[in-house]
Amino acid sequence: MLSRSEALVLSILRRGPVSGESLAAELGVTRAYVHKVVDELRRWGVPVAAVPGSGYRMLLEDDLSRTGELLTLTGVGAPVVYFERCSRSSQDIARDIAASGATSWTTVVCEEMASGRGRMGRAWYAPKGGLWFTTILRPGFTGPLHLLSLAAGVSVAETLRALLDIDARVKWPNDVLVGERKVCGVLVEGEAEADRVRVLYLGVGVNANNEIPEEVRGTAASLRELAGASVPRATLLAVVLSRLRTYYGHLSSGKPERVIESWTKLSGTIGRMVRVVTRDGREIVGRAVALDRLGRLTVEVSGVRHHIEAGDVHHLEH
Question: Which of 291, 280, 318, 317 is CA-nearest to residue 149?
């Protein structure tokens, strides 16, 4: 999460370009301190440019084909492959690109997808205006794949909170909610050989500026609706990839607790009564009390704790 100083500077930058002198005066600090905080924001993932004559400016860009330019400001080297329209899922396109030798962190971005999909083979509606992408990862991480789903959810939620001032929360195992309405879903798939994962495909779908079908408006929302204005998708993507780079580093270095801790702070599930339907069809109703070190949801039923590795979670109370 952002520090207090970083959050204050970012809140000012959201209003538009501002000089270092004005920032320093408003915060009651030195210009050198402002420069230090801006550098910290860039490392966190926010693309802040220094513009001669006008000072600092957060780059708010919707054109997804320009995401790579924003990433250079945050120090994240991530090749971005942009398609105006994808007749297949970004996951499938990423598989083809990976087979051709694409490097880790190569990201496939689709302006729209005709055949998007979510968890368990479910169809995913992916029209123009949304943010639909898959990142290729050649892993140094060998833990449970759902830890990567948690890391992606946290990365998206942190980005929405920082850039849009939206109270985004994570729902186990792979959703981001605002209130009880879904704004983002995550899909992790992989290819293995022998006992080693060779490549991972991290798919993320964000309802950004797209229209939400009437039949799901009670359970899904777009960021445009929530923010009251169109949102800069390329900026969102650049920050999400930067945050994901940080959390993936924690997983790869054997520190899953960093992901678990951040996820728990942003959780909309922990402490709630939930109904869990497991993959084998079992139904568990109880209170979600924690995540364990493997990222499994711990649900307490009449004093007995169940560790859920995979399944669908339904919140039963607000």
Answer: 291
pTM of full prediction above 0.90: yes
Which two tokens mark 127?
């029209």
Do 113 and 257 sit in the same domain of this protein?
yes
Provide the residue range defining the domain that includes 155. 64-265
Domain shared by 171 and 232, yes or no: yes
Per-residue model confidence as pLDDT tens digits over 8-32:
999 999 888 899 899 999 888 999 9
- Do residues 80 and 139 both lie within one domain? yes
189-214 mean pLDDT = 87
Quote the pLDDT of residue 123.
59
State how far the Cα of 28 lies from the Cα of 129, in Å rounded to an integer: 40
For tokens 């004559």, name the residue: 53
- 3 state SS of 33: helix
Pair (125, 85) in one structural domain? yes
Work out the mean pLDDT of the chain and round it to a whole number.
Answer: 90
| End-to-end C-alpha distance for the chain, whole angstroms | 25
10 and 132 share one domain: no
Measure the CA–CA gap between 134 and 81, rounded to whole angstroms. 10
Q: What's the structural domain count of the chain?
A: 3
Distance CA 134, CA 232 (A): 18
170 has a pLDDT exceeding 60: yes
CATH number, domain with residue 27: 1.10.10.10
Residues facing residue 298 across a β-bridge: 290, 307
Question: CA-CA distance, 125 to 112, in Å (whole number)?
Answer: 9
Q: What share of the chain is helix, strand, coil (3-state, %, to 5)?
A: 35, 30, 35
CATH of the domain at 292: 2.30.30.100
The pLDDT of residue 120 is above 60:
no
Q: Are residues 256 and 282 in the same domain?
A: no
Task: Give, to the nearest 10 degrees, the angle between helix 20-27 and helix 4-13.
Answer: 130
